[in-house]
């Protein structure tokens, strides 16, 4: 079972009306470690939140406040960084506490993350887990995930607890940013595990790796796919509306940039990555589907290999059309791609 994809998106704006910006806590770099970032706040606030001063910021007027180091770290800071080097055991546990009632959400950035990998069934033995959040669609994450991110919502004042099981050879650094409830520019829509407000960018499946081939999965080989994924990656902003999103092949990838099938080893290599190798809807989820894995783009319109216009919602197989356009209602300024 394989799920291995990276696709590029570009959306067209209808207007550029912006909402007023809200004051946010600025990030700062610890004076003691280039890998650690904290919150640029007043010294008294740092002490009150249980943080540790790590240099100055804001032209010396504020303190760069970081989380205390230890086996079980707790942070009430708006911005915190946790790294492998902060822990002396192969189990890291850190708790994110809501800084105040004005914060509703956190963004977790995997600045670097290379921890274990899924087995032949897509199960992570080691990896990142989270509990205490209001969201229910958060998977265990392992493998190579540099630059990935997730959004989590606070469940009232229940702390969000993250754990990472890792080996000595693994490496990881995670940045956590709390987002205010009225920060419309940065707050992800409800239900979105990932959120891309930029006008263009790339969406990658977790543990995506650029490869020149994908071997069949056996009892002794692993897969790139993480099991039990079912989440939204949302595109757009709360300060702009747009007319459409266009999805294309990811930049800097091989023909194996879109693999959602367990039969990839049976497909000729010169056929992989082409529009002719793409499959849709019933082929992805029907009784003939080997995996029930797909990417969902609501009413995605594209030109088929026979030159006709075609509209589908679920995409799988080992290829992708040259361009898939989602024509979105102007009443909704958020669209999404479902990875299942």
Automatic annotation (TrEMBL):
Family matches, as InterPro entries: CUB_metazoa (IPR058698)
CUB domain sequence ranges: 189-333
Signal peptide: 1-16
Keyword Signal: yes
Record's keyword terms, sorted: Signal
Recorded superkingdom: Eukaryota
The keyword Signal appears for this protein: yes
Classification via Pfam families: CUB_animal
PANTHER family: CUB DOMAIN-CONTAINING PROTEIN (PTHR33236:SF11), INTRAFLAGELLAR TRANSPORT PROTEIN 122 FAMILY PROTEIN-RELATED (PTHR33236)
Protein name: CUB domain-containing protein
Source organism per UniProt: Armadillidium nasatum
């Amino acid at each position: 079972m394989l799920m291995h994809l990276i696709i590029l998106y570009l959306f067209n704006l209808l207007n550029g009306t912006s909402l007023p910006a809200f004051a946010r806590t600025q990030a700062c770099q610890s004076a003691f470690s280039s890998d650690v970032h904290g919150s640029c706040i007043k010294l008294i606030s740092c002490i009150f939140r249980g943080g540790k001063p790590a240099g100055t910021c804001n032209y010396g007027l504020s303190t760069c406040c970081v989380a205390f180091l230890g086996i079980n770290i707790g942070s009430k800071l708006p911005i915190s960084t946790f790294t492998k080097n902060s822990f002396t055991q192969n189990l890291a546990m850190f708790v994110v506490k809501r800084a105040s009632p004005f914060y509703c959400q956190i963004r977790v950035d995997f600045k670097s993350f290379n921890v274990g990998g899924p087995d032949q069934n897509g199960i992570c033995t080691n990896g990142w887990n989270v509990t205490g959040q209001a969201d229910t669609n958060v998977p265990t994450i392992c493998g190579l995930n540099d630059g990935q991110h997730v959004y989590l919502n606070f469940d009232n004042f229940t702390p969000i607890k993250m754990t990472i099981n890792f080996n000595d050879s693994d490496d990881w650094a995670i940045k956590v940013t709390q987002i205010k409830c009225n920060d419309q520019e940065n707050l992800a829509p409800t239900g979105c595990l990932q959120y891309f407000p930029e006008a263009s960018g790339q969406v990658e499946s977790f543990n995506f790796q650029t490869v020149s081939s994908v071997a069949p999965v056996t009892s002794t080989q692993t897969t790139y796919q993480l099991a039990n994924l079912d989440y939204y990656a949302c595109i757009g902003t709360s300060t702009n509306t747009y007319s459409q999103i266009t999805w294309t092949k990811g930049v800097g990838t091989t023909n194996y940039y879109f693999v959602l099938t367990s039969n990839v080893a049976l497909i000729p290599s010169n056929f992989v990555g082409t529009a002719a190798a793409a499959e849709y809807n019933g082929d992805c989820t029907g009784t003939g589907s080997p995996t029930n894995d797909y990417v969902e783009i609501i009413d995605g319109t594209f030109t088929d290999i026979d030159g006709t216009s075609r509209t589908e919602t679920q995409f799988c197989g080992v290829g992708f059309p040259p361009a898939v356009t989602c024509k979105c209602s102007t009443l909704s300024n958020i669209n999404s791609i479902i990875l299942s």
